[in-house]
User: Fold this.
Amino acid sequence: MAAEVKAERRMLVIDDERVVLMSCKRVFSDENYEVVSTDSAKQGLELVSQNKFDVILCDWKMPEFDGMDVVEELNNRTPDSTVVMISGFPSIGRATEAMKRGAMEYIAKPFTPEEIVNTVNRAIKRKLEAEQKTLGKLKHLLGSSSFPVPSIEDKSPRTIAETVVQKVGVGKTTSPWLSVFVLGILAGAYIGFGGLLAGSVTFDMPANLGIGFTKFMSGAVFSLGLILVIIAGAELFTGNNLMISSVMSREISFSKMLGRWGLVYAANFIGSLIIALLFVGSLMEDNISIKVFWRTPISLLEIRVILGERSPIETFLLISMSC
Assistant:
């Protein structure tokens, strides 16, 4: 009977999906890891306080805590561990934030055994390189008596760019199309709301305030729509443009990128159209007469639209043409 091989490294997996916990345990047990898993972020933090783990896989979206806060706390409690963030909703902003808070790598669900193993190996290599770089800086500073010591959590732009190419672009093309479509509709609705709010705020602003101040206020109010997109993790078409980096590095095909662009663009349009129709419908209920201005290089054409005399579609088209 062959002697049992003792695991060389320990891994903690924190994820609220049982299938992910079971898959990671099966894959990394074959890679000579002792795998401990939990579906509770709170229990995961307790485990790292009482035990030492070489690698920690942490999900971004969990019922109890925000995964970003968990990653930051993990980095504070066990700075020697290599942390990898898992997310079923990949985005460039989320990947960058995870790297800044202490994660060495970022991978999108769903993933293959080969992808997760390669990601962990890359994260371990980057952790070692970061520690060696920091040690080298420390020796140099001690030798020259220069202080203060730089932060150990510094991430180079190249490292963040590689993560964007390898993870975010690929993750967006492999995400379920229905989830992307729903998130795209939400993004279109949020941006439509921002544009509608900006127009409402600046429409009757006194002329003596100046066009500069009017444009400033319009931009400031419109940014609320962008803030809502970021907070909700919605899919905005412009946020998918960096996928071309993944195409150039041959991580994804050009046809896949175009397919995802078309899906998100259509979803954004539908979301903004819904907001526009809701707005027009609410005005028609009150039979309100509004002024719409159509600015041309030659003259200012004032159009009066009596909403009660036109259908919602006709009114919406007139308003769209005048903006």
User: Anything to note?
Assistant: The radius of gyration is 26 Å.
